[in-house]
Amino acid sequence: MQFFGGTEISPSPPAPTASGNNAHMLYIFNRNGICLLYREWNRPLKTLSSQQDHKLMFGLLFSLKSLTAKMDPTSVEKGNLGVPQLPGQGCSFHSFRTNTYKLSFMESPSGIKIILVTHPRTGDLRDSLKYIYNLYVEYVVKNPLYSPGSPIRCELFNKTVDQYVRGLG
Amino acid sequence: MTTAKQSQVTKNARTVRMQWLMDEIVTGFEVYRSGFRFQSCLDFVFWLKNAELFTLTYGAIVRQLLTDLEEVEEVNKQLDQMGYNIGVRLVDEFLEKSNVSSCVDFKETAEVIAKVGFKMFLGVTASVSNWDSEGTTCSLILEDNPLVDFVELPDNCQGLYYCNILSGVIRGALEMVSMKTEVTWLRDMLRGDDVFELQVKLLKQVPEEYPYKDDE
């Protein structure tokens, strides 16, 4: 609860650019690799068990972050590939696109990673991911019954996220 | 706090609130309030500012801990632990509202905590000083601390760090952004010093490691 500084209403969500079920999956990981949330709306092909799938996703992003920082042509200091990064160090990658899907990624300095897999023609989702982080703070972090580091079992949060994501273009 | 001190504190608080009410009437705040003002003159709780509620709640927690744990050192430790648990959650709210994107430079981090963090959650800003030569230790100076409004430490609680929750909050929050720190009080206004001084010492920065053991 915030006692000072006035009430800060969470910013209104970015306006949706198209209607319809566009998103495929959402993952939220914490800094220890624990999958806090996995939501699935449209995933016809599943090849791995959910545990393997989470590990793969986390590992992929962990390596991608390291790789993108190493390949950065504008950065002066180049750590060795595989050296763990401090929050905000190196460039931050935010999405990749294939012919069948687009994966958007956001990481907070506290290690909370939000991954959203959508239709390939989706625009820049950075603001939307920030809004989902906002929802996470409001519904999960501020919930006294939630212990940090454990999977999220908050129905209200799930519903709000579902509703918001369905409205995204 | 003893009951004599308790009632003294409550009496002081009530005096201050009466004063505040009178000030409000004199300076003439918003018109809609004036309708309620006279009606609820006796209802002090209704007009308690959020700040006072926060201060009194914190005071009640410390009082209860002193009753339950009796040992002042134990209370200090418990306040620090409570602060730590708050800090690990608070950091996400802070990061989300302040749009900070990197936590690599400890100097920058200390400034952000003092100016933005303290302002956001306590309503007051702190200043950063006393940097050591390596840039890993600094002091956060608080001249104004809402937690200690109306508080006087009685003689039997002289070892108590009343605001120890703050040291836990800072430690917990920094740990979540990969900084392991040690936070101690150097000066404490409740013990007769002129300001609150918190020393924050960066022990090490622990970047994210790949968490899964290689089992494939």
UniProtKB/TrEMBL annotation, chain A:
Major localization class: endoplasmic reticulum
Location in or out of the cell: Endoplasmic reticulum; Golgi apparatus, cis-Golgi network
Record keyword Ligase present: no
Keywords assigned by UniProt, alphabetized: Endoplasmic reticulum, ER-Golgi transport, Golgi apparatus, Transport
Nucleotide-binding keyword on record: no
Domain of life per record: Eukaryota
InterPro entries, per database record: Longin-like_dom_sf, TRAPPC
Family per record: Belongs to the TRAPP small subunits family. BET5 subfamily.
Summary of subunit composition and partner proteins: Part of the multisubunit transport protein particle (TRAPP) complex.
Protein's UniProt name: Trafficking protein particle complex subunit
From TrEMBL, chain B:
Entry superkingdom: Eukaryota
Keywords, comma-separated and alphabetical: Endoplasmic reticulum, ER-Golgi transport, Golgi apparatus, Transport
Transmembrane segments: none
CDD domains: TRAPPC3_bet3
Signal sequence segment: none
Localisation: Endoplasmic reticulum; Golgi apparatus, cis-Golgi network
One Pfam family per UniProt: TRAPP
Main location: endoplasmic reticulum
Annotated PANTHER family: TRAFFICKING PROTEIN PARTICLE COMPLEX SUBUNIT 3 (PTHR13048)
Similarity section: Belongs to the TRAPP small subunits family. BET3 subfamily.
Protein name per the record: Trafficking protein particle complex subunit
Phylogenetic placement of the source organism: Eukaryota, Viridiplantae, Streptophyta, Embryophyta, Tracheophyta
